[in-house]
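Supplementary Methods. Inverse-folding protocol.

Structures were first reduced to a discrete structure-token string of length 123. This string, shown here, constituted the complete conditioning input.
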């Protein structure tokens, strides 16, 4: 479980960049996503599932909005798509084997997606 917590906390990087670029609502959504995910993981994944999913869907929608507003700018769009494929790989793999490790890699892929979507918007 420790690895899942550590990788979730790596979202601090896109949150900090969101604040740096003045994307305060985006940074707030990412922060809520981290808080809900931490609550979910720290409660042995028995509580806060629905809240975590709802906030994650809001973050996904916001990421799509920033990709769109960034006009799917290269190379950010392509890197986001590669990260998306990786995230699906790790998510499905986590359902079958080594859940903690694969779920943690899913966190990292999600962070990469968010960074790429932000990059498409700000650059």
């Amino acid at each position: 479980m420790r690895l899942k917590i550590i990788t979730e906390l790596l979202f601090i990087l896109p949150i900090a960049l969101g604040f740096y670029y003045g994307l305060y609502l985006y940074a707030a959504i990412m922060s809520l996503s981290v808080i809900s995910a931490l609550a979910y993981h720290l409660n042995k994944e028995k509580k806060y599932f629905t809240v975590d999913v709802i906030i994650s869907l809001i973050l996904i929608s916001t990421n799509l909005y920033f990709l769109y507003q960034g006009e799917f700018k290269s190379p950010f769009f392509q890197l986001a798509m590669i990260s998306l494929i990786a995230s699906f790989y790790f998510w499905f793999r986590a359902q079958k084997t080594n859940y903690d490790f694969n779920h943690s890699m899913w966190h990292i892929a999600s962070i990469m997606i968010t960074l790429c979507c932000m990059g498409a918007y700000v650059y």
